[in-house]
């Protein structure tokens, strides 16, 4: 069965702690390639925020949810989220209002339409507790690690990912 072509619009989600440690995940299809959470829109109508929430959950098991403010209701909602290992509030996911346009790596070109050579990537940051459980999608990722943001940027194979990670202090300070 032929898969539909990927939409050349994606998200990059820099998952980080308050101390600017960054979660990196290693690609299963390219061992040694470390990155933040990335993924393309499933449909042209999917909002980038929806793409970010979906990709974070698919790739790390971390559910981003609009949690109620009342503590008793929050624990009730948390108990309803059983298919994932952890959850964080939707307010922790910040759209950095930043996008990168880059050439699609030749190794992944076959996933896109014949005349598609560039992708537009929208950048988000997600603040999480350092001890949050991470459950990788085994067909997509082999391993994960937490690194201080500068070290994480150095470890990324993608230049746009590294640049986003290096901007982390600016977005954490300026936008919470």
UniProtKB/TrEMBL annotation:
Name all Nudix hydrolase domain ranges: 4-169
**SUPFAM superfamilies this protein is in?**
Nudix
CDD domains, alphabetized? NUDIX_DHNTPase_like
Quote one Gene Ontology molecular function term: catalytic activity
Family annotation (InterPro entries): NUDIX_hydrolase-like_dom_sf, NUDIX_hydrolase_dom
Q: Which Pfam families does this UniProt record tie to the protein? A: NUDIX (PF00293)
Which lineage ranks, top first, belong to the organism behind this chain? Answer: Bacteria, Pseudomonadati, Pseudomonadota, Betaproteobacteria, Burkholderiales
Write down the PANTHER family for this protein, in alphabetical order. Answer: ADP-RIBOSE PYROPHOSPHATASE, DIHYDRONEOPTERIN TRIPHOSPHATE DIPHOSPHATASE
- Name of this chain's protein: Dihydroneopterin triphosphate pyrophosphatase
Q: Which NCBIfam families match?
A: PRK09438.1
């Amino acid at each position: 069965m032929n898969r539909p072509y990927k939409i050349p619009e994606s998200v990059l989600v820099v998952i980080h702690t308050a101390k600017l440690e960054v979660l990196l995940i290693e690609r299963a299809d390219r061992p040694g390639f470390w990155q933040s959470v990335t993924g393309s829109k499933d449909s042209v109508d999917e909002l980038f925020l929806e793409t970010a929430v979906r990709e974070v959950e698919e790739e790390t098991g971390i559910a981003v949810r609009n949690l109620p403010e009342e503590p008793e209701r929050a624990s009730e909602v948390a108990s309803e989220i059983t298919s994932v290992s952890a959850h964080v509030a939707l307010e922790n996911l910040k759209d950095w209002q930043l996008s990168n346009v880059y050439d699609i790596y030749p190794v992944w070109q076959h996933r896109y339409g014949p005349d598609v050579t560039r992708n537009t990537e929208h950048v988000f940051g997600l603040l999480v507790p350092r001890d949050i459980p991470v459950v990788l999608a085994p067909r997509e990722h082999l391993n994960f690690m937490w690194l201080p943001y500068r070290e994480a940027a150095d470890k990324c194979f993608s230049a746009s990912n590294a640049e986003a990670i290096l901007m982390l202090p600016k977005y954490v300070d300026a936008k919470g």
